[in-house]
Amino acid sequence: MFTNLGLRLRIFLIFSALAAALIIVMIGALFMGWRNSFSAPDGFITSGVIAAFGILAVCAAVWLLFDENVAKPILRLSSHLRTRAHSGAHVALNADDAKYLGDLAPAAQAISQELGQSAMSQAEAVAQATARLSADRDHLTALLTEIPVAMILVNPSHQIVLYDGQAAEVLNQIAPPRMGASITEFFDERSLLNAHAKLSKTGKEVICTLRGVKGQQEYEAKLRPLGGAPGYMIVIDSATALIAPEASRPLTYDFALMDRSVDHAHADMPLCEMSYVVFDTETTGLLPHKDDVVQLGAMRVLRGRIVEGEVIDTLVDPKRPIPAASTKVHGISDHMVIGAPDFGSVTRRFHAFCTGSVIVAHNAPFDMAFLHRQSKEMDIAFDHPILDTVLVSAVLFGADAKHTLDAICDRLGITIPEHLRHTALGDAQATAEVLCAMIPMLQAQGMRTFGDVIQETRKHGRLLQDLNTPA
Asked: Where is the Exonuclease domain (predicted)?
């Protein structure tokens, strides 16, 4: 019954029970004394009341000391160990946080350092292998770039598994390219599925014309089978796609998506399998109802990893002067936003970028307020599931910990380059790295689905509002 309660609450209940037991014993003793005496009960009642308040005061004082010097340090120590174990962070334990726990803190630090050294040696070996794979990928990317076609690999559920740099430019003419997205979000579903049906029937290459979903683009394409493997390849002649010769994007892929089926409801999806869009804004001020956005940065996280190349990084023309005080914070001035898109067009593009994903932000109510205000003027709605790293930090590290982005990054060993601080994309990247570190920590505590996490974040509503609509 009590195993599901937090450590601090259980300790508080123990001291409450102790105080109640002492008061009951005292009342019993006073009652027996009164029965065996011939004096009026007033003196016994007065003594009992004074003693009861004294017992409560002493128990409360001892509980506070115990809470500050034992319970909280134990929770901080456990958070530190979980962080080291599941996020890969190598942050030294602050001995002052557990100075009253005897040898427990030094022992934990010794174990942590030993595991860290072992992990570092393994990481070096992995890094060397990764470097070789990265070099191979760079060579492959360069080779594919020289081939005048755009290639998109699609799984049996019609989700994008791989696209090269030229395909990214093709997709970007329609909507922001997104790995794991349905290909029918980019090309007309009817013409694509007709061509796919013919491909499935004949098992041979099919030549077709693919139209963009907005009807403004048309591409000569080939659908090719994968030699008996599930899925298919879309090949588009770059001559018909109006691809800029200087366009350069990374080869983007995740072959684990080949076996992925159509997504389940977000609440039931495993955290490590979900698609996230992490974003941040820079604004003219701190009042969403009257200030405006001057920069928006966003990136995607898929299957627990940041997707290279799937990024939005844009200045925004606020159609008003930017206060000097705000420029001192983010460095964006009036002349920098001349010719930048307005927030309406940026909002629409960002909305498309978020399709099928959970929106993630640090202090989400602030950033989402600007999007909601703008969306009211457009025929779109930001009804996506939302994850706030402030609330997730409270779940993992306790409500009493500091939950600023800098504090969380320090706790997780994440370094934010100084030149990226207070830029929308820089803070979005820091938040994305925080999210990637937090996912295995949440899973280790038994929160394996998005619904599990939201159930816990709602318990911290006094800290910050959870923006998800209750089921």
From this structure: 275-444
